[in-house]
Amino acid sequence: MSGTKTFEPKPKDVFVESTEPGTSPIWVKGPSSRRYLTWYTILTIAITAVWGAVLGILLPNQVQLIEFGGWFTGADAGIDLQQLTLLQQSIDAGTASATAEQARQLELLSGFNAARAQSLAIITSIGVVLTMLIQPIVGVFADRTRTRWGRRAPWILFGTLAGALLLSLMRFAPTIALLAIVFMLTQAVLNSAVGPLMTTVADRMPENRRGTASALGGFGNFFGGLLGGLAAGALFATIGLDFYFILAAFVAFAGVMFVLIARDRSSKDLVVAKFNWKAFFVGFTIALRNRNYRWVWVARILLTFGYTVSTALSLYMLQSYVRPALSQIEATQLAPLLLLTGVPVTIIAVFIAGKLSDKLGKRRIFVIVASLLMAASMIIPIVWPTVPGLFLQAIVGGIAFGIYLPVDQALFIDVLPDKRAAGRDLGVAGLGSNLGQALGPILAGAVVAVTGGYVGIWITAGVLVFLGAVAIFPLKGVK
């Protein structure tokens, strides 16, 4: 056992000693295991609170404010978007007609709707593209990092602290271009902490507890997004974009506390081979050559792609799709409540799915059921384009996502072709999520721009998620 102060097992700790120098012990049970799981969950909540608040509330509103200033100028600057949208819905329903002046304003509204959808899509997607390039690279270097704090801690600390600084800078972005650049860097830096954090499950948890640990991570993912969205929505009318500062403080605090309290063993004795750039880049393809890993990876892309298509423009959908249309403030306050509706069933699904998956020793059936249930939920807003319809979709989709989150992560760990390269290969797994997240907003924005409406978003999302279920069937030798 290393004598470094960063590794201090307690008398009641039960752990399996690592066979390789400089790597983490496997925590079976005890105080150190509980500390790790607690702060792993808290840090997951903090990071996903950023995405819940930024992607769900702050960024759409910031884009809308910038685009509104570009489209509605002079005498049009005081236009009420809700009233203009209600007029458009009445005209579509054949219960009203527009004057010449109203027709001109409705043309501005049409251009504004397409512009804000496309701008938001570009900004959210461009950030994911850089993350796609960085996260697997960080995973490889995290596998090779030698410090007294272990392999993963330096990356987690850098990602959370630098990410907090960039979040604060987002508050002051005056144009779409600058907002896109800062958000791209923010997303990339924060995600450089996410990969190493996820890999600590493979590093420190025994196989029969990975489903439970992933369930806690799944809970953190959902609850964090909910917490960030609810808080940002509730406080937006009061503090507006200054909520960025609250998010920055939370994620910095959680990152520092994880590194200090859930301490890891020193990795200074880690044996690493001489670095080879060719082998480095070829290494990213190793996991994808494995048949089972490849199909799980494709399934994650499809489900994430479909889910992101359905959620990318949620705030705008409340303002322009549901009948009757809501105002910006009403939509901002209601958007996070859609997530809150599904919280009880999602939390139950996360823990039941994680524990039941461990008990039965099965992963595949859970992912298939979750994907099919999520695809079915996309039909609800098509046949019932109202606020209650969106709430019902959120409940059904929440159950599906609660089943999916813990088991999919555990399934990826189970099909890893080389456990010694877990950081690299789970980074590639994260690349699948990022690819889906990058494509989703682009497709959603394109659907709105081409069709002039939102119903196509639900159709597209349902098809993609259904295909995600189909992609799991070819797995061999995996329960």
Automatic annotation (TrEMBL):
<feature type="transmembrane region" description="Helical">
    <location>
        <begin position="153"/>
        <end position="170"/>
    </location>
</feature>
<feature type="transmembrane region" description="Helical">
    <location>
        <begin position="428"/>
        <end position="449"/>
    </location>
</feature>
<feature type="transmembrane region" description="Helical">
    <location>
        <begin position="37"/>
        <end position="59"/>
    </location>
</feature>
<keyword id="KW-0472">Membrane</keyword>
<feature type="transmembrane region" description="Helical">
    <location>
        <begin position="215"/>
        <end position="237"/>
    </location>
</feature>
<feature type="transmembrane region" description="Helical">
    <location>
        <begin position="297"/>
        <end position="322"/>
    </location>
</feature>
<dbReference type="GO" id="GO:0005886">
    <property type="term" value="C:plasma membrane"/>
</dbReference>
<feature type="transmembrane region" description="Helical">
    <location>
        <begin position="455"/>
        <end position="475"/>
    </location>
</feature>
<keyword id="KW-1133">Transmembrane helix</keyword>
<feature type="transmembrane region" description="Helical">
    <location>
        <begin position="334"/>
        <end position="353"/>
    </location>
</feature>
<feature type="transmembrane region" description="Helical">
    <location>
        <begin position="176"/>
        <end position="194"/>
    </location>
</feature>
<keyword id="KW-0812">Transmembrane</keyword>
<dbReference type="GO" id="GO:0022857">
    <property type="term" value="F:transmembrane transporter activity"/>
</dbReference>
<dbReference type="InterPro" id="IPR036259">
    <property type="entry name" value="MFS_trans_sf"/>
</dbReference>
<dbReference type="InterPro" id="IPR020846">
    <property type="entry name" value="MFS_dom"/>
</dbReference>
<feature type="transmembrane region" description="Helical">
    <location>
        <begin position="365"/>
        <end position="384"/>
    </location>
</feature>
<dbReference type="Pfam" id="PF13347">
    <property type="entry name" value="MFS_2"/>
</dbReference>
<feature type="transmembrane region" description="Helical">
    <location>
        <begin position="390"/>
        <end position="407"/>
    </location>
</feature>
<feature type="transmembrane region" description="Helical">
    <location>
        <begin position="243"/>
        <end position="262"/>
    </location>
</feature>
<protein>
    <submittedName>
        <fullName>Na+/melibiose symporter-like transporter</fullName>
    </submittedName>
</protein>
<feature type="transmembrane region" description="Helical">
    <location>
        <begin position="120"/>
        <end position="141"/>
    </location>
</feature>
<feature type="domain" description="Major facilitator superfamily (MFS) profile">
    <location>
        <begin position="62"/>
        <end position="479"/>
    </location>
</feature>
